[in-house]
Amino acid sequence: MIDRKNLGLLILILIVSGVVAFLNPRFLSPVNLSNTANLIGLFGIFAIAQAFVIISGGIELSSGSVIALLGVIFVDLVGNGVLSPLAAVILVLAIGAVIGTLHGILVARVGLQPFVVTLCGLLIYRGIARYYTEDATAGFAFGASFPGLEWLTTGRVLGVPNSLTTMVILAVVTGILLHRSVYGRTLLATGRNPQAARYSGINTTAVLITAYLLCAVLTAIAAIYLAMYTRSISPSSHGNFYELYAIAAAVLGGCSLRGGEGSILGVVLGTVLLQVLQNLVNLLGIPSSLNFAVMGSVIILGVLADNWFARRKDRAISRS
């Protein structure tokens, strides 16, 4: 069921889309809609990943660097025939799980701040990615073909990109996990008030570690899709600032940076709005250098809206 926040976001998407289509009819062309849908799928996967950490009361700043590291590893393993595509996918997901578990342990068990842990991860994983390739671009050999893998990651069914289909499937699964399972309720409770959650018998350490684990595994899936989408990866720039896209989509979608609040549907809608705004920048000839200005404005507006809703809720509670 769509709540007021998500309904408002959906209406905003329709308004912005209508304005863009009016200003430039190319927005509604099949090619543009297909490319936009593909990008929504690619970015939506790691935006959903970021949501789990934000809802837990933390933040994940190393997503872009993880995407770069896992991307170059995946391309190297598959492109050079070291492993079969299936084995490479399993290994990359396993590495992602290890990274997420490590982050979770450092935050939940050691007691380090999520900002510090993931900021250090941002630097470490980017450095390892550059060392792994000797700072060279990693890519598939000319003419290299992996039909099954390519269809799964970059193919289309009835014109719908498989990346979007995958994102929708993951959104449904994670939505059920967050909103219809015991774990989801404990995650929301932990993010809202960790001390109260502990006193009520919730194993907050396990909850937080699982949140970072889920985030990293979903990010690993995004890394595979992005590697197949780009076909070549420059470790110094691939995935740069992607964590900001994820944070912006999550915040736009109603995930509170204070923790304990958010929805998967909201994150998906936030991703859609961001991509529509990016499309607006491209179609209207606005300098691409303003992309980050648009993103920063979106984040601050999302935070202001979150504060407004929080104050309104507090006033409603105080009156009752």
Description:
With 320 residues, the protein is mainly α. It is built from 13 helices and four strands. It has helices at 4-23, 30-55, 63-79, 85-109, 114-132, 147-154, 162-179, 182-192, 194-199, 204-230, 242-252, 264-283, 291-319; strands at residues 138-139, 156-157, 160-161, 232-233. The strands form two sheets. A two-stranded antiparallel sheet has the order 1-4. Helix 2 runs parallel beside helix 7 (162-179) and helix 3 packs parallel to helix 5 (114-132). The protein is globular and about 65 Å long. The relative contact order is 0.19.
List descriptors:
single chain, 320 residues, mainly alpha, two-stranded antiparallel ribbon, two-stranded antiparallel sheet, 13 helices, 4 strands, globular
Helix coverage percent of residues?
Answer: over 70%
Low-confidence stretches: none
Radius of gyration: 20 Å
Termini separation: 25 Å
DSSP, total strands: 4
- Helical element count? 13
Query: Helix-strand pattern, N to C?
Result: HHHHHEHEEHHHHEHHH
Instruction: Profile the largest sheet.
Output: 2 strands, antiparallel
Strand content: under 5%
Write the layout of secondary structure elements.
Layout (H helix, E strand, L loop, with lengths): L3 H20 L6 H26 L7 H17 L5 H25 L4 H19 L5 E2 L7 H8 L1 E2 L2 E2 H18 L2 H11 L1 H6 L4 H27 L1 E2 L8 H11 L11 H20 L7 H29 L1
Q: Short description, anyone?
A:
By secondary structure, this protein is mostly helical. It is built from 13 helices and four strands. Strands 1-4 form a two-stranded antiparallel ribbon.
